[in-house]
Amino acid sequence: MSSTLNTWVEIPKQTDFTIYNLPFGIFSATDKSKRIGVAIGDQILDLVEASSLGIFDGLGISTSTLENDYLNDFIALGKKTTSAAREKIQSHLCDENSPLKSASGIFIKQEEAQMHLPVKVGDYTDFYSSIEHATNVGKMFRDPENALLPNWKHLPVGYHGRASSIIVSGEDIHRPKGQTKPDDGPPVFGPCKLMDFELEMAFIVGKETELGDSVSTDKAEDHIFGMVLFNDWSARDIQKWEYVPLGPFLGKSFASSISPWVVTMEALDPFRVTGPEQEPEVLPYLQYQGSRNYDIDLEVLIQPESHDEPSSITKSNFKYMYWNMAQQLAHHTVNGCNVKVGDMMASGTISGKDEQSFGSMLELSWAGSNTVPLKNGEVRKFLQDGDTVIMRGHAEKNGIRIGFGEVRSKLLPAK
């Protein structure tokens, strides 16, 4: 990445979508079917129109790949091609003589577009990779002195989630229903009473493997295309009753929300940092070289239905993750499990080291024993119907900003 890039596109200050970012997404508009776009400032560059001007000549990218319901076919072209396409876009947006500058209909305002789920998610895995989050949960529900289970520091704990209920930002969800177990009686059926969010990020697989193959930590990044923000909605009371012995099921599978723009790993490369020290030493297949964590600031806001201004309730950072993405993918495939383009793997709740950086209402309210203050005097222990949860994330260093936009969804009453 050049230290300084100047674009002829007018870009608002403090935008997430700078010339250094250029994330990919799927959008449609009044006169445009679903297709791939790139976010730049408050606009979207239509890649179907851009391709018609010849900017991707020689890269082997067909119109059908670009005019598509999902990014999967584009991602499957491989990093050599997708990175070259992104570099071509970046070059043209900095070239005063580019045909993009004078073409009509090639940019549209983001506010005039409809964003869609960026990838067709074949499979989804959720990890449990924040030591701060796992420790908090262990203190609340198991043993304050021995909060982590014996396996936690030896492998990235995870479970296979439900891909069909992953939705894009802007889609609202209904409070889920299910079985819960009161402390003083038999199980009952009804709406979840302890509704929560989980602040997470997710990576998207960009290169498939064959059944029986494993991906090493050295090669893992070849298989990761980019990242999104991820809200792993959680019904805590349903989960508490069901999760023994096989783990989360209905308490998680009703919905997970993601941001619409996929930020590439190339854009995030300048924000690499060293991860936490792993003690005891992990097994050889989980050992890695270099900086594999990323310094990405994260924030969660709640906007009650009763007023327009959201309240910031927590700020965390992706750099805290104990288990990094390369380790997650290496562990996921070490038994020969195959992965496919578009598969999504979420980080697990990302909590920081202090109470202002916890990544869920469960932790912020400490299982309901405390209240979380909002503006206008309102408080929460868990989410209420009508609450809109907003997650934002960005990385910034040496004057370069790379952001994810936001993922937002409103909690509606149970059907």
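The above is record 1. Record 2 follows with the same two-line structure.
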Amino acid sequence: MKKKPTHALRIENGLKCGSAWFAYLLLIPALFNFFLFWLYPNFNSIILSFQGIQGEWTFGNYLFVFEELFGSSDGVFAIALRNTLLFFCQGYFITQTFNVVLAYFIYKKIAFSKFFRFILYLPNMFAGIILVSIYKNIIGSEGPIITFLYEHGLIGERIMLLNTTKYAIWASIAYSLWPSVGGVFLWCSGAMARIPKDLLEAAALDGITPWKEFIHIILPMISGTLSTLYIIGISGILGSGGATLYLTFGEYGTTTLSFWIFKQVYTGGGSGTSSALGILMTLVTIPLIFLVKYLAKKVTAEVSY
């Protein structure tokens, strides 16, 4: 008589790790999160986007959004769209590129590289409200920056940067430069660490300069990681907003599309308009994601190591 194969690993209640339904059991929490926090909110948003104030079905929410976005250059939606694109460009082009360059310098183990790596990642270890409080004190009217400019005659009065429409959006964007360093920096550092040392040593023997090494070796070798980061990054083009909630709460011309939606939901008004704007943002973002994915395949070099 043949003996049935036994499983070496078992659980106290008798469940076998090789059982298919055991795997399904492990998927239950993920499915619960998917249905409760993704499928239901998105399905509900689609319905709300077609409902008016009295609950009637209408396209008025979409018409209102279009009129506000394209009908007036100084309306709230137009300002929010402008600020959203400013935050996106700062994060997608400036900060992300800055992260790649920083990762290369750390990878080359320059003097005090470990210290710089700790300092650069430091904002990710603190709560956002703590960083905002520190930043507000630094750029405040009595802070060291304004005090220095005022005492040296570079400005005629003490300026409250976050409370002035002319400067608030730029002060908010400036805040996002340091805290944005973190995730991309670690991804790029990990990708560079995988590059074969023999390749770099051979290039060094041929007299390659650090600049050419970065352009012709490092970037092509980590192009797969970079393309992934840029594809993921384009998905947030209309959701960019920095720390608007903590810095200005959308006042002084600093509101963004995502913050406007949050504020409408937070104050309990305009759910239909907010849903319509969210749906339109999604419809605009999806084609951009596929476009960047297509371009990444054309530009990215196929390397394996």
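The chain has a mean pLDDT of 84.
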